[in-house]
């Protein structure tokens, strides 16, 4: 990565009780010698409880790496990453697996549903695997919120792309995780289905108090969030509150210009 990264505008963010997740001085280095890549360079950020945060930045800026490190899917090289009060670097593999299962919901670009199970079975699968009984009232609320009540017996192949992603959203919400990480959740959807899925994510934050962190390239998708944080060259360089698509686009253009002239 370039050494000429822009000065971070966000102050070092210490862990505090109100954050669903937080990173402090988080660095991630891949490879060594000539293949060494600093994917994250001392990133400090908090993801507030009950808030919807979008992570944006150019290709290769470290968005997925940040998400993977925060979700315990990848190890960190320096600094700290916490989910709630739990410091991830202190956990062994089995504890990390349990943490991901019990505290984190995931939504990916590919819906990752099991084709032989119907919508309801897909939604409750992670809890079935964990041997946990779903809270029926909560499950009913989640299913109603994402508008799937009439589709629960359908298999993924009998659902549209947007409906399949809504099943994935419901699956992520079903266990009431501490935090949901979504990686380009609308990347495979047309704009109308994408808007629906983003609307449901937004509603899960507003109505159900869920915490959502979403990686996206799309300024319109980012505008559904309460806050956008921007990465460039592995550093957190800026953030926007209550973003409109125009604000986000404008900010991205400015970074582009800086990148070309520096
Ligand atoms: N497993 C890996 N081994 C080596 N380098 C990696 C690995 N994963 C990511 N990188 C490098 O780390 C940097 C950040 O990658 P990352 O995938 O986090 O970026 P991104 O912002 O999510 O990009 P995109 O928008 O293209 O998905 C890139 O330079 C990438 O090449």
Form type: globular
Report the CATH architecture: 3-Layer(aba) Sandwich
Oligomer: single chain
Low-confidence stretches: 1-17
Walkthrough of the structure:
Pfam families: ABC_tran. It comes from Streptomyces auratus AGR0001. This is ABC transporter ATP-binding protein. InterPro entries: AAA+_ATPase, ABC_transporter-like_ATP-bd, ABC_transporter-like_CS, ABC_transpr_LolD-like, MacB-like_ATP-bd, P-loop_NTPase. This protein has about 260 residues and is of the alpha/beta class. The chain has a single domain (about 50-70, about 90-260), classed as 3-Layer(aba) Sandwich (Rossmann fold). The chain is built from eight helices and ten strands. The chain has helices at about 65-70, 95-105, 120-130, 135-145, 160-175, 190-210, 220, 245-260; strands at about 20-30, 35-50, 50-55, 80-85, 85, 105, 180-185, 210-215, 225-230, 235-240. The strands form two sheets. Strands 6-7-8-3-9-10 form a six-stranded mixed beta sheet, sandwiched between helices. Helix 4 (about 135-145) packs antiparallel against helix 5 (about 160-175). The protein is globular, with a radius of gyration of 18 Å. Mean pLDDT is about 90; it is low at about 1-15. Adenosine-5'-triphosphate (ATP) binds next to strand 2 and helix 1.
